[in-house]
């Protein structure tokens, strides 16, 4: 049995009735749509604000974008809600995009309002800029303060609240704090006419930065702070600070092109003709601050020490000085001056100075010269322990004193006394030279030791285990032997002690003298020299014994003239000889 259905009573699908009903439905839909559009009910506003009738009084909408030309740049604002009129338009939950030749800006603000063509964005808000045509970020900023944050007027920005900006690239990488009143001009340049502006170096590097921060009274900078100019600058450095009239930013450096003044925590004060901080490696912090024509001074218990050099590098570890370095140090009432092509002064631990250089020490390299009074020492390398003023000198050492000059091996000492390893050669201004295995130099006292040490002057050749020179005196406290020139040939000498002073040589203790064909022994002998430094007279005293062609005998004293080959005995004498002296 079949069940009847109402649908079975309808005409078939191709019946003309259905064709007519379809056209009626289309016509009705079009009519309703046209009536809705012309009724002005609530809906999406136009995407372009140009002053047409779509922005009449009471306009409201949601979820859209607004495009506006700001000078040469184009701004696109996306919003969640919009209401108002052409003269007073209000947006909520705004995301902005600004396309410029210098970069692509993004912003996020809770609300924005345009009145008489001027936009005011509310804070707290976020900003960001990327390189043109890329997504590589150059920096990002934040206005934390609620209320008016930025005003846009014809493409120019005015900061109504302080801005914290993090620069992500170039030498200006770090955090910038701009006060209310900062301006961004139509060409993208940032300006602050009334500071303070503050830049802080990033703290995420493997080591603490040398250049830590800068404060300035005025600022001019390009987008992202890639280049810029600061005025009235005070920079905080590790272990100190500097002040300069201006500072310039570039992608590679922070520089202070004019005169600057600085202070260090270790007591150094001074100035420089200019300074620069090279951009560190990616991910690192500023570790170098370099100065040109650097001068500094520091107070000490004994006076004021001073530094000057063509160039200096300020590091957390201390100072690296290069180029005509002059370091003056007061020591016990005298001025000790060190000159060298390069001097390293370590004040603290750090990687920029050699690890072998301890804290509190300094080293001068490149043929250093140390002078005090009329004395000087020169060496390829001089190390100093600054607290004790003890010095070490690398071989070879060249020295100069009041009495002469010398050359030697490695040395060490202080301004009062030096020990120079041999071989040592001393040349005296008064004539003559000394040679030995070691020199001890104490003020005007020169002590040479060796096996043997030698003393040579014109026709004099004397040697001993130890030779002491003081003023015009040359003494042999531990034995003497050698030769002197005489009229009849060389005179050979040997004694336990000897002293040469002016035109006289005094010998004592087991003295032996030997001339041409004769030999003399005595407790003490005095040899008088003529103007030509040849032996003029030999005076012997105490247990005198003479043998040879001038006679043989023993007595208390005698005088012998090699030139005339004559002998004059004094007192009782035993022996035989020719002449009035016998």
TrEMBL record:
This is Organic solvent tolerance-like N-terminal domain-containing protein. It comes from Geothrix limicola. The lineage of its organism: Bacteria, Pseudomonadati, Acidobacteriota, Holophagae, Holophagales.
């Amino acid at each position: 049995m079949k069940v009847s259905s109402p649908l079975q009573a309808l005409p078939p699908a191709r019946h003309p009735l259905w064709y007519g009903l379809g056209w009626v439905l289309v016509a009705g839909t079009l009519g309703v749509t046209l009536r809705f559009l012309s009724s002005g009910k609530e809906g999406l506003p136009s995407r372009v604000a140009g002053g047409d009738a779509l922005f009449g009084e009471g306009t409201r909408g949601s979820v859209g974008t607004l495009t506006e030309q700001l000078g040469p740049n184009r701004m696109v604002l996306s919003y969640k809600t919009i209401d108002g009129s052409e003269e007073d338009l209000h947006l909520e939950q705004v995301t902005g995009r600004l396309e410029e030749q210098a970069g692509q800006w993004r912003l996020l603000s809770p609300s924005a309002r345009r009145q008489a063509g001027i936009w005011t964005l509310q804070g707290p808000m976020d900003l960001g800029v990327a390189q043109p045509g890329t997504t590589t970020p150059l920096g990002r900023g934040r206005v934390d303060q609620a209320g008016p944050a930025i005003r846009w007027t014809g493409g120019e920005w005015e900061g109504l609240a302080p801005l914290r900006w993090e620069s992500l690239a170039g030498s200006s990488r770090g955090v910038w704090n701009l006060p209310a009143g900062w301006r961004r001009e139509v060409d993208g340049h940032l300006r602050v006419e009334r500071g303070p502006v503050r830049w802080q170096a990033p703290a995420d590097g493997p080591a603490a930065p040398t250049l830590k921060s800068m404060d300035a009274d005025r600022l001019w900078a390009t987008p992202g702070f890639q280049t810029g100019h600061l005025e009235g600058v005070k920079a905080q450095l590790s272990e100190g600070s500097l002040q300069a009239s201006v500072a310039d930013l570039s992608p590679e450096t922070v520089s202070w092109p004019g005169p600057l003044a600085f202070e260090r925590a270790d007591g150094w004060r001074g100035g420089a003709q200019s300074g620069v901080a090279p951009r560190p490696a990616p991910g690192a912090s500023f570790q170098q601050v370099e100065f040109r024509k650097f001068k500094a001074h520091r107070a000490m218990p004994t006076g004021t020490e001073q530094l000057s050099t063509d160039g200096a590098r300020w590091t957390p570890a201390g100072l690296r000085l290069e180029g005509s370095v002059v370091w003056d140090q007061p020591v016990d009432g005298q001025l000790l001056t060190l000159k060298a092509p390069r001097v390293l002064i370590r004040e603290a631990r750090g990687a920029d100075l050699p690890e072998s250089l301890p804290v509190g020490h300094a080293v001068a390299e490149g043929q250093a010269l140390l002078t005090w009074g009329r004395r000087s020492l020169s060496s390829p390398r001089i190390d100093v322990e600054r607290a004790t003023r003890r010095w070490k000198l690398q071989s070879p050492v060249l020295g100069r004193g009041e009495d002469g000059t010398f050359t030697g091996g490695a040395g060490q000492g202080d301004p009062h006394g030096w020990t120079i390893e041999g071989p040592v050669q001393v040349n005296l201004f008064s004539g003559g030279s000394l040679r030995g295995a070691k020199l001890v130099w104490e003020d005007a006292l020169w002590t040479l030791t060796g096996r043997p040490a030698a003393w040579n002057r014109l026709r004099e050749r004397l040697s001993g285990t130890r030779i002491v020179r003081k003023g015009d005196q040359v003494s042999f406290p531990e034995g003497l032997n050698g030769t002197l020139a005489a009229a009849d040939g060389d005179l050979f000498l040997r004694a336990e002690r000897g002293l040469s002073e002016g035109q006289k040589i005094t010998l004592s203790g087991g003295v032996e003298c030997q001339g041409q064909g004769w030999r003399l022994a005595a407790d003490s002998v005095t040899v008088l020299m003529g103007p030509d430094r040849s032996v003029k007279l030999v005076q012997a005293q105490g247990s005198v014994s003479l043998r040879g062609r001038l006679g043989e005998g023993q007595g208390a004293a005698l005088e012998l003239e090699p030139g005339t080959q004559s002998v004059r005995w004094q007192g009782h004498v035993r022996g035989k000889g020719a002449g009035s002296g016998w």
